[in-house]
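Following the same procedure, backbone shapes were mapped to integers, yielding the entry below.
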Amino acid sequence: MALTKGAAYRLVALFALGLTAGCGLFQSGSVKKCKAELSSELKSPSSMKIVDVHEIREQSTVLGAKEIIGDDVLKRLDKKWMDQEVVRVTVLIDYDAANSYGAMLRDSKICNLVEAEGELEWAITNAKIAATRADADEAVKAAQEALEDAEKALQGY
């Protein structure tokens, strides 16, 4: 059975699409973020070879994704956002990378992310920034108190 010219073109196009999809040309933003996070954690990021990537996506609400978003961030979000839809994304990356001795090891990385769009994305980002600033302010305050306590203790000597 001979292929027609049009069928042969479609077959080649599908094959090429399959190859490029496997090469990671069509990765979601969540997969890219997870790979970047993984790369920043490795001793030798340039040695990283991705073996397999799995992405699970499910619809949720902001409140339903609180374990990913975090309570400290939710406290800073306006209540109007709690029932808004987001996508909970779990990315599993199997990879090989060199350790500090240069030996290639296989491991896995799991990232749990939330994807939101438009104003909600900005609201979540701003709440994360506010939570980070609050944590930093608390750390500075605790360090200042410890320094004052140390100075008081040294005055007795």
